[in-house]
Design a protein that fits this description.
Elements lengths: L30 H13 L8 H5 L15 H21 L2 H7 L4 H10 L17 H12 L3 H13 L2 H7 L2 H13 L3 E4 L15 E4 L5 E12 L6 E13 L2 E12 L5 E7 L9 E12 L3 E2 L5 H12 L2 H23 L1 E2 L2 E2 L4 H30 L6 H25 L1 H5 L2 H6 L7 H8 L9 H24 L5 H21 L8 H14 L2 H13 L4 H28 L7 H30 L8 H25 L3 H12 L14
Parallel strand pairs: 1-4
Antiparallel strand pairs: 2-3, 3-7, 4-5, 5-8, 6-7, 9-10
Helix pairs in contact: 1-10, 3-5, 3-6, 6-11, 7-10, 8-10, 10-13, 11-12, 11-13, 12-13, 12-22, 12-23, 13-16, 13-17, 13-22, 17-18, 17-22, 19-21, 21-22, 21-23, 22-23
The structure holds flavin-adenine dinucleotide.
Flavin-adenine dinucleotide (FAD) binds next to strand 1, strand 3 and helix 17.
């Protein structure tokens, strides 16, 4: 019997033994591609229903009723710690000195430990502060505005190091043994990367062989770029363990272990140095026949990649939070300089080119903060909330905007932006550290999931509901009758879903806004309440209502475009990285617009100083206008682009047998 899936993102029916493990047809891929994809597919978190972010790609706008603001009680709990942290940073930390010497003074690390900064989210039962994700993000904002090195130390320790996976997956015994140690300030680190393993864990060489009695594993291999590695007492190490037979085939297994660095066989062989984050304690670590007890496995044997990916899902929120702190500092320096510095007869902030940079900086910072707080609040309301997409969008959008912001701030300060803080101070000017910020900030679009990988990750999740409905129909690995059944099922689903994505469309913006309301009213019950949600969330300002309606309308346009791309490219869509990247960027902009409008509305409603006509409204309005222009540009790029030409040219440039005309030794 053919059944229509109740909702696009409903869980898939259980897969039978003769069905492939992955929804994506890997039969035409190279061995390396297949291995990488199957490993990461197997480690994906199973979906627990749709989320606001995933709905955006399916044409459903399901924002929270109002901005999920932090409760006063939670805020008070965080404030006490944040005040001490700010005091410590102000009185005891010289971030430029840390940058210059490449070392964090032991006294600063001790003081941070005394404040509880190594156990911010760890429950008091284990000696931590037990603060919420929102307060943790607020701490990252404070740190990010002062010192990238301290941010990285604390974030690598507790966003991805031992505490986070232990809180998520640890047994009671593991928690009782290790959480008090890390909460007290024993530094930890996360070791996944290897020389051959960057974004693709399938090629991992570090190997853990079980002993004959199965009670221990013998760990061998080398990890690269392990932040905190030179000072860490504890590591989470991802290693391959013996392959398992799945559906008659040997499948690689990755397992996560807690490893103590004072165990025999663990050696730091090199401290890595970088263009920024000069005081990062980043190591190459070797493991030579290290005996790891079985009880130090996190979650279960073979679940290491799940541990790593899930840890990173929430851990990823720290980077955009830190970027908010840095962006606010950039804005502070830029405001002052643009007002004080006069050239060509006026303060430079009065020249339109500089004014534009300031407006963009302020609005993007507000949006970045709104997105991060909105995602953090979801974790606080439900510890097991599926925030994969929201966190990835915050990371992708936030780190890319932060790079733009620091670059703009440097431009606004002209030559002084390029000068080091120390040099400025030596010649009697204020030690503004934009040059350091720029160096420290560059890595943010690379680690914890590079922008390219984030786009692929988000695209995979965005396509998931479609893959569940239609992938089987196109999967050449399946028998014909199964593909036929799947095709009929998909046709039934899309014949209902697709027309809905057109309702509300109109030729002019005004018309489409009117029909938008009609369209939404005529939609299914769930979407009616969505409209009610919008109305109650945005009670006051037509401006914000208009922008949110644009988001709802554009979400349907995005869903349609994604669907058309699926029809055009079939299973090969997965290879259209630039096209998918545009869809992802549109989704991230829609998320940013929603968070911005809801937060602006919340601030105006809750704080009288943000009343009608306030700067918050102006900022949100400007942000949304600019975001809409970026979105329209991305839609244009879906149809008109040079993707094919750029790929062909790149492949020619890369051909090793060709002598390329721009090589340095081929000067005419
Ligand atoms: C300062 C620093 C600190 C770090 N800290 C840690 C740590 O604590 N623990 C840890 O385990 N690792 C850490 N890393 C490693 C970091 O996470 C990796 O650098 C990152 O995962 C990228 O890997 P890679 O540099 O090998 O790049 P590669 O994977 O080799 O990628 C090179 C480029 O190709 C792009 N690319 C790769 N695959 C694809 C694809 N399929 N499609 C499109 N583009 C693609 C990437 O985005 C990147 O731009 C750190 C790195 C640095 C530099």
């Amino acid at each position: 019997m053919i059944t229509i899936p109740p909702s696009p993102s409903a869980p898939p029916p259980p897969r039978s033994a003769d069905e492939p493990a992955s929804l994506i047809d890997t039969s035409k891929m190279s061995e390396g591609q297949r291995a990488a994809l199957e490993l990461t597919e197997a480690a994906r978190e199973t979906v627990r229903g749709s989320t606001f972010a995933s709905d955006l790609f399916m044409g459903a706008f399901t924002p929270p009723q109002a901005f999920p603001a932090q409760s006063l009680e939670d805020r008070d709990q965080g404030d006490a710690f944040l005040k001490s942290l700010e005091r410590l940073l102000h009185n005891n930390v010289d971030a430029d000195e840390i940058d210059r010497t490449g070392e964090i003074p032991d006294g600063v690390i001790r003081e941070l430990a005394r404040l509880g900064a190594f156990g911010i989210k760890i429950s008091p039962e284990y000696g931590g502060l037990g603060l919420s994700q929102t307060n943790y993000c607020r701490a990252a904002m404070v740190l990010g505005g002062v010192c990238g090195n301290l941010t990285a130390l604390l974030s690598a320790h507790q966003s991805i190091g031992v505490p986070q996976p232990l809180i998520l997956f640890g047994t009671d015994e593991q928690k009782a043994k290790y959480l008090p140690r890390v909460a007290r300030g024993e530094i930890s680190a996360f070791a996944l990367t290897e020389a051959g393993v960057g974004s693709d864990p399938a090629t991992m060489q570090t190997y853990a062989e079980p002993t004959e009695d199965g009670q221990e594993f013998i760990l061998n291999g080398e990890k690269l770029w392990c932040t905190n590695g030179t000072r860490a007492g504890l590591l989470v190490v991802m290693a391959k363990t013996p392959a398992k037979q799945v559906r008659g085939k040997a499948k690689d297994q990755v397992t996560a272990f807690i490893v103590e660095t004072n165990w025999p066989g663990v050696t730091v062989t090199h401290r890595c140095r970088f263009m920024g984050l000069k005081a990062l304690y980043n190591a190459v670590i070797r493991f030579d026949n290290v005996r790891v007890p079985r009880e130090n496995i996190l979650l279960a044997e073979g679940k290491g990649l799940r541990v790593a990916l899930t840890t990173l899902n929430t851990g990823r929120l720290t980077l955009p939070a830190a970027c908010v702190g840095m962006a606010k500092r950039c804005l502070k320096y830029s405001r002052r300089w643009a007002s004080d510095r006069a050239q060509w007869g006026a303060p430079i902030g009065k020249h339109a080119a500089i004014a534009d940079l300031i407006a963009r900086m302020a609005a993007n910072t507000f949006a970045m903060e709104s997105m991060t707080l909105m995602a953090a609040s979801r974790v606080d309301r439900d510890k097991h909330a599926d925030i994969r997409l929201e966190a990835a969008m915050c990371k992708l959008w936030g780190t890319e905007r932060a790079w733009e912001i620091v670059n703009d701030a440097l431009q606004i300060r002209g030559g002084r932006g390029y000068e080091t803080a120390g040099s400025l101070q030596e010649r009697g000017e204020e030690a503004v550290p934009l040059e350091r910020f720029l160096r420290d900030c560059r890595i943010n679009t690379i680690f914890e999931g590079s922008s390219e990988i984030m786009r692929l990750f988000i695209a995979r999740e965005a396509l998931d509901p479609h893959l569940k409905v239609s992938a089987a129909a196109l999967d050449s690995r399946l028998p014909l009758f199964k593909r036929f059944q799947a095709a009929v099922r998909a046709a039934a689903f899309y014949s209902r879903w697709y027309p809905k994505q057109w309702i509300g469309g109109g030729k002019t913006e005004d018309r489409s806004q009117k029909s938008e309301v009609r369209g939404q009213k005529s939609e299914a019950g769930g979407q009616k309440s969505e409209v009610r949600g919008q109305k109650s969330a945005v009670r006051r300002h037509k401006v914000l209502v208009r922008h949110l309606r644009y988001v709802a309308r554009t979400s349907r346009r995005l869903a349609r475009s994604l669907f058309h791309a699926m029809l055009r490219h079939g299973p090969k869509l997965e290879r259209q990285q630039l096209l998918l990247g545009r869809f992802v960027d549109i989704g991230a902009e829609l998320f940013a617009m929603t968070a911005t409008c809801l937060r602006a509305d919340h601030l105006m409603a809750s704080e009288p100083k943000h009343g009608q006509g306030s700067d918050v409204l102006e900022m949100a309005d400007y942000f949304c206008q600019a975001s809409r222009l970026r979105i329209e540009e991305k839609f244009r790029g879906v149809r008109h682009n040079t993707d094919g030409a750029s790929y062909r040219l790149a492949q020619r440039v890369l051909e090793s047998s060709r002598r390329f005309s721009l090589e340095p030794d081929s000067v005419p």
